[in-house]
Amino acid sequence: MSTNLYLYKRVVQAKLYIDLHYAERIELDNIAGEAYFSKFHFLRLFKKIYGKTPHQYLVTVRLKNASLLLKKGTTVSEACHAVGFESLSSFSSLFRKHQGMSPSAYLLFYQEKTSAIQKLPLAFIPGCFAQKHGWKE
Amino acid sequence: MIAKMTHVCVYVLDQNSAYDFYVNKLGFQVITDAPMGPDRWLTVAPPEQQGFEITLMPIKEGMMFSKEAAASMRELVKKGTFGFGVFGCYDIYATYEELKAKGVEFSKVPTKEFYGVEALFKDDSGNWFSLGQME
Asked: In terms of domains, do A71 and A129 share one?
């Protein structure tokens, strides 16, 4: 390993900090502070490990958690604010870029899928598994 | 001609605990979570893998297992008899540190082997997996 394990641990701690506090207002300096070393070095190592800057990673985590909320039926504006976005329009535009569809289309898609699963779960299970487990004739 | 594998079955001791392990610790996405009697049809997949689902299957007495077979299977899983495959990551040292911080139990720390750097970890039931760094 070319980079010291100590530095890896610090960057991983910062990543885990983002994973946990994504809904809050996180300043980049605070993230670097979590890692206890220079901002420049921190940014370089973070990007090397995760392929994204901390800011890009934070946006990805927010969008991922917004997707999870939408899958559970949370409204678009509630999901937007719950994950830390302040502007609904920038959230919608980032979401569309990330997921290939608008948040409202995503919400509708998963509402229909969840309802279909509840009504006819066997339609979502490969026949061989269902048969082997005695779930269908 | 077989084109690809789409599902693999991992037998787990408890589906709720397995959900927590695979989703909240490993960071996998839920593909299908459908109610099926007292249990559920629960499939997950690594976030970047399309078209492949890991079915987290409870070990219960029924058509698949007799009462004795289910009890034996549970014991075998607990003892770490089964290894299901190799997961790939971009940075094994960072992934190891992250999973360790989340409480994942490793039986082998990242180690340089002739085929690459490898670590071994267990799921919450006792099934083990290899973790390798993708080149």
From this structure: yes
